[in-house]
Design brief:
Elements (H helix, E strand, L loop, with lengths): L9 H8 L4 E2 L1 E6 L5 E6 L3 E4 L4 E7 L5 H7 L1 E6 L5 H8 L11 E3 L5 E3 L4 E13 L2 E13 L6 E4 L2 E4 L3 H10 L2
C-alpha cells in the first residue's frame, strides 16, 4: 500500500528491500597509531572498469567512516560463509573489533582479513553525500581472490550463503 504524497514507511522499506540478498563486506583501513579499523557494509559494488572503481555506502552516523576517510584508503574484504561471527564482531559498536582477528597488511597497509573470499584494496576517489548515507568511491590499487569459499550474504534479516544450482549439480556429477 502506498503512503500519501509518495512517502514510504521506513520499516516497510527495509522489509521489502530485505528480500534482496546483499553481500557482507568488511571495509578496513589503518587508523591512528597503525591501529586496524573496520566496519561491515552490505552495499559494496563495482562501479567502473576503466578506471577500475568500486563503491560502498556508509551511514552518516558511522564512527568508523571518518577514520577511513582520514586514511584516504580502504580494503574491501568479501567475507566467507563461515565468517558470520567475524561480521557480527566488526559490526558491533563500542568494542575492540580487531581483538583476536587475524589479518595481514596489504601493500598499502590496509588490513586484509584471514579467510576471506577476496579483497579489493583502494584509494578513496570520491565521497558523495546521499540521503542519510555517504557513497564512498574507491580506485582499485590491488585485488585478489583468496579462496573458493562461498560468500556470506545477508537476506531477509539473517545471514546465509550462496550455492548455485549449477555448482550443486556439478558436484553431484563429479561425486563430491
Amino acid at each position: 500500500m502506498s503512503q500519501p504524497d509518495g512517502e514510504i514507511d521506513g520499516r516497510r522499506f527495509r522489509d521489502v528491500l530485505g528480500h534482496f540478498p546483499t553481500s557482507v563486506v568488511a571495509i578496513t583501513t589503518e587508523g591512528a597509531g597503525q591501529r586496524p579499523e573496520g566496519m561491515v557494509v552490505g552495499s559494496f559494488t563495482s562501479v567502473s572498469l576503466d578506471p577500475p572503481l568500486v563503491s560502498f555506502l556508509a551511514d552518516r552516523s558511522s564512527g568508523t567512516l571518518p577514520k577511513i576517510l582520514g586514511a584516504g584508503r580502504f580494503c574491501a574484504n568479501v567475507l566467507a560463509a563461515d565468517q558470520e561471527l567475524l561480521s557480527r564482531k566488526l559490526a558491533a559498536r563500542g568494542t575492540d573489533r580487531f581483538d583476536g582477528v587475524a589479518w595481514k597488511p596489504s601493500a598499502a597497509g590496509n588490513p586484509v582479513l584471514d579467510g576471506v573470499v577476496a579483497w579489493v584494496d583502494c584509494g578513496i576517489e570520491q565521497v558523495v553525500e546521499i540521503g542519510d548515507h555517504f557513497l564512498v568511491v574507491g580506485r582499485v590499487r590491488d585485488l585478489r581472490v583468496e579462496s573458493a569459499k562461498t560468500p556470506l550474504l545477508f537476506f531477509r534479516g539473517g545471514y546465509g550463503d550462496y550455492f548455485s544450482t549449477t555448482s550443486l549439480l556439478l558436484d553431484q556429477l563429479i561425486g563430491w
